[in-house]
Amino acid sequence: MTLLKKTAVALAAFGALTGVAHAQSEVTLYGLVDLYVGKKTSKATLGDLSLRTSPGMSLTSGGLNGSRWGLRGTEDLGGGLKATFQLESGFNADTGTSVAAGGGFNRTSKLGLSGGFGSFEMGRQNTQVFQLMDRFDAQGTSSFSATNAIFGPAVLVAAGSLSPALRRDNMLQYTTPTMGGFTGSLQYAFGENGGPGVSAGHTMGVSALYASGPLAVQGVYETLKGAGSGAATAKTTALGASYDFKSVKVLAQYVAQKDGWVNGIKENGYVLSVAVPVGAACTINAGICSESLKVSS
Virtual CA dihedral for 78, 81, 87, 88, nearest 10 degrees? Predict the structure, then answer.
């Protein structure tokens, strides 16, 4: 009987604490479903190798945006500090299956702390290169964007290269407060490969963003350590800019990658796109792109 009374008191105390925490916290359930019917043909040439894919007409998930659902929340810790978290999972809306093998929060899984010092986050997160690509293309990094056309996996996988990654596991990110329109960010991802003389997967990145009024400019530099003892490092440099003229928004980006550990691949590409608002609820987007890919034997 005594045990039952103590348990009841403990549960009541937990309920009171939960009530207090709930009054200071906010959790949001969100999601997006994207489906389209259409036909997409891709063609790429790498030396004597011609790559062409055309699956025919299909009902497909993720035309403009990847279908996803997630949870995000904040907890007010007092003194200007807030604890934050975000969990986001991608899925195929046409089949109901998870994008990630075995499910899980494959898009984002992070915990953070923010305040007057800026913000610090850790977990699976978007890389700074991906953030720049998405910010400076009128169609983002959607299936039909110019950015996806040149930095998608098809031709680079055939060449054996690692294209600029969208996300990294085990990542730490610090972002400064915005001062005079400027924001800086640092990223470091642990490779977590404990083999002798091996440190594959270590990623480091630095970003500087200026955004004020109609103008935005960003520069990013990122490195990725290759596999094996003494392996070289892949390096990516990205620049982006946009200007909103109200009647039309012009966006441009340039990305250069040097892959020193798989066939000496060097890739340079640029994207120029525009977004034209038509009424309050419609925008027409268009973009062009070009790339140069060199493979050393």
Answer: 120
- Please say whether the beta carbons of 82 and 115 come within 8 A: yes
Q: Determine the Cα–Cα distance for residues 187 and 173; give it in Å rounded to an integer.
A: 4
Amino acid 34 reads: D
Alpha-carbon gap, residue 254 to 201, rounded angstroms: 24
Phi and psi for 139 in degrees, rounded to 5?
-105, 15
d(CA 136, CA 224): 23
Q: Which residues, 6+ apart, have CB-to-CB distance to 3 below 8 Å?
A: none
Nearest to 205 by CA among 182, 247, 171, 181: 171
Residues in the chain: 297
**Position of tokens 């604890």?**
83
* β partners of residue 293: 267
Distance CA 154, CA 160 (A): 10
Quick check: 16 pLDDT over 50?
no
pLDDT in tens, 64-93: 888 999 999 999 999 999 999 999 999 999
DSSP label at 10?
A: H
